[in-house]
Queue: 2 jobs
Job 1
Amino acid sequence: MSTTAAPVEWQTDVDAYAQALRELFSDDPAFDQWRGVHHATTEDRVRATATLLGHLYAGGWNRFGWPEAVGGLGGDARHRAALYDELSAAGLPVPDPCLLMETLANPLVHFEPGLAAEMLPRWLRGEEWWGQGFSEPEAGSDLASLRCRARLDGENYVVSGSKLWMSSGATATRMMCLVRTGTPESRHRGLTMILIDVDSPGLSVRPVALASGLNEVAEVFFDDVVVPADRVIGSHDGGWGVAMYLLQFERAMYAWLAACVALRRFYELRDRVMTNGGLPDGATRRLGECYTDLVSLRARSAETVRRLSAAEAVGPEASVDKILLATAEISLHDLARDLLGDHFLTGTDDGADEWRHDWWYSRSATILGGSSEVQRTILADHVLKLPKENA
Amino acid sequence: MSGLDLDTITEVTASVREVFAAGTGAAVLAKALDELGWTEVVEADPAIATTILFSEQGRALASSRLLDDVVLNQLGSVLPAASGSRAVLYPRTGATPGTVGILLGAVEDDTEIVSMAMDENGNASWCLRPASDFTTEAITGFDPTCGWSLARTSTAATAVAAAGTSWDDARAAGRLAITAEIIGVCASALELAVSHTSARHQYGRALASFQAVRHQLSESHAAIESARNTLAAAYAASPEHGGGAWAAKVAKVRAGQTQAIVMRRGIQVLGAMGLTLESEMHRYVTRAAALDALLGGHAELAVEIGTELLGGAAPARVVTI
């Protein structure tokens, strides 16, 4: 398909768009180069899957779901959700840059359409991707206590401090960071969201290896890094609002995207163990339960994605999506570990390696983006409206 | 998309809640639903109508033969036309289908009992017999107020129709309605747990201000929501997208798991009150258990799903965007 051939009806007909994707992935042999590929490092994986984005972009496919004004071809969150689902169903990876695109590009489009028009097309082509700088060594779940400071100096901000746990941090070229512009005591009121180029003088990146040995995250240091004031996303001291807007997408679309990938991995596990004799007691039931977890997660997150696409505000109830996601991820990877048994522990092939890496990464499901404890507290406070803990 | 708007759904839900609150003799229930214009609601959106009706039945811990209507509705083109009233004989795990089963409420002697029987080759067929062919005995074990009875017959029945896929369809429709009822039971039980722990103080604080309690209630909420979403997705899935029997089975597994979580947590946070006849909690616990078992419990159905998957099943995605 050439870019110009994309039917304009797809903007409103998600089913037709999804159907066309199914045909594309089954008919175009070019996609085989991204199927079943094992990457030795996270850096390799991110770069390799970014080239899949480039291939999709050349055909206009991943431009659906983004406004025309910022380089897209129209449509909404449902188009992006359909793309992730069809990629997964066709045995293809969801390109790594899509994870943070879902989280960061939405506030960019909403608050800074000018910057989005300039930068989003490059991201969609897989030429660049960004990191998200929220957590710090002293501020994880308690985000409002963060200390990385930005001081306004004429036309620029001067940023000093550090950020931790940045996904794709080792390869990202820009970072959207939540920084303190108010007093140290200002909590969520004195925060600003700002976009920082990684090649700025004074910025250094230290990749952090998970227990799998993969550099899934990074720590980033800012030593009086100068950032032009026009790189503020939203307004000065308005960062908390931007972060809350962003979290809707992070909780909802990330859950859907992860569920798509998890279902692909579930079938890969099933295919691998179904020919094994002597599965452990309870394996059949656990497979059925894990499958049910995944379908429930899809049902939940699809509903939330539909609400997002209808421009409904998704509030604290999105914590349910996050809890279900964490439950499904943990259940799938514990099942894989138990069913693969010795192969998981000692297997030397790429498949075993990948399950071990994924098992470690799955442990982050109850931690990143607001721990399971935080999600349960949000539901208790804002949905069930229970008496406050510190009342 | 629903054929009913949000305001209508809210209004209908409130009305149905009142109907169940007023008590549920079969005749009272039928009349009240009729006055509500229930037929029109069902026509506008059968999935939502069924979900509301059964969720409210669950909330109220009411018992009725409404499920029979759901099941029989699937058999309209399979069974001969009814001359009078009909009731469904539900299979009981471990019992020979057709000769022993569960009736969900009282029947008249001339009511036709619809049952599914299986021959030695595993071929299912539908049988019709008058209720007078059966002896019944009230079921009183774990849930003594369920209003169900165990019906037995020694009369041979002639098959009136091969069941074919109609058994799958009828059972799927029944499972979705039961899923909605379990959700209703769970929602009520969670409300009870929330109100008890918000009102009761220990160590100078409301119980629900302790994180250990709050998080258990949040987990119950998440479980109930996931069952709701799975149910809606199962109703929405067309057969080519894994809807029908497969999706209904998944939804019922989810509902069964949900009641296990909600009841375990509910009993715990009520302290010893949850174990007594003085609190309503035991009624939710036992009703949810009975409903979980009806047409297949969650453990059994999860094994069935796992077995099919290990056999190489490639089910469609059930949920699409």
Note: The longest strand of chain B covers residues 112-118.
Job 2
Amino acid sequence: MNSGGRDVDRELVDLVVAGDRDAFTSLLQRHQRRILNFIYRMVGERGFAEDLTQEVFLKAYEALPRFRGEAAFGTWLFRIAHNHCLNALRRKGREIAVTALAKEPSNGNPLAQLPDPSAPVDERMEQRELHAVVQAKLAELTPEHRAVLVLRDIQGLSYDEIASALNLEGGTVRSRIHRARMELKEKIRNYLEA
Amino acid sequence: MRCEEIQDRFSAYLEDELEAAERRSIESHVEACVGCRQELALLRRTVSTLQSLEEIEVPPRLTAAIQAGVSAEGGSRWRHLVSRLFFPLHIKLPLEAMALLLVTLGAVYVYRSAPELAQAPLPQAVTERESRDKTTPIARGQRGDWQEQAARKRPAEKLRAHSKVEDEQKALGEADAVGRALRKGAPSASLEDVSPMPEMILKTKNPSQAASRVANIVKRLGGKLLEKKGEHQLILTIPASAYPEFLAALGELGEPMHPPAETLAKPSPEGAITFSFRLIP
């Protein structure tokens, strides 16, 4: 999210507020992939993530007149998406990510592909299998820990952007990211050491 | 620094956020400590694995759905409502279908377990009653339209409360029964068939004596005293053709009260009329 990106987004937002719906399509195309992937990593189920993504963008569209530009548009979107995910997870129970992953078809079903960590060394995991393990273990973290890891290590947001998106202090973001990484490391230790 | 303190700085170290002195301190510790070196390697690999996770693609249908939602603006509140009602689809649609099924089953159960619901008068009975209230009995009798009105009513035999409304519903039900009997032209209609039945009231100076005379008149006209309920109430049936003569004979005994004798029936050429006849002083 460079400053140029923020400027373009701001101009598009102004156009949308002025009544130009095509400008919203441009905003959508610029941000939908990141928002969908953030939500997918948060809830763990692709269909559910698509539902939530749709709701997030429609919610953002309605809230656009109240967007003041104090944060970048992309960060603002992540804030809406994050809050929406937390609400959805609270409604459905936090175990949703784990149970949902277990039900996912082979395309995006990490749990179904989990290798046995005690398997012989010569059956080393391929990169795809490790990804499956990480996604499954990510789902076991609290939503708060999961959110900072996804925003920092998967989406690549800066600490400041994460602080803005999650409405946290910078120090809190740093310590939370570290604790979340250490927790995930412990959960996948057996797979990493295999 | 202890190993625990060193490891607490690993994320900042990997992020290259440390001052040069602290960075050198950590590096020298890790070089000497196998355990911390291993932990740093595991953490580095954890982060790199997260960073290498593949992204999923946005399906065209999702983009189209969002655009459609935005295009439906102007119905923003409507869209919000629809969204709240139906999204997420895979959760709410089955729940809503189940709720609808339960409500339907509940309604059927209540309906079947409470027969009075099935036999309750239709709303139009109230309308009819209001219409009747606005019309004097005589006027109604002159119109002679009670048969058509009564024919549209459903009997409410099971409603036995003594409120005014229920009494009127009962009267409507009785009229219905007679209406049916007249339309069928059924001289042999049993009491069960036509019950409840309409009632004619005759005000007379000597009810007991008049009752006896009425019975004689009926017999003379080819009718029959079906039942005597107490001293002053008779259940009568007479040929429809003899009805005008019956009315004329009544005029000599007293004054028909409620309903007026003229309104009891428009006799058809064939068949009989069965009704309750009450005498009051």
Note: Chain A touches chain B through 47 residues (CB under 8 Å).
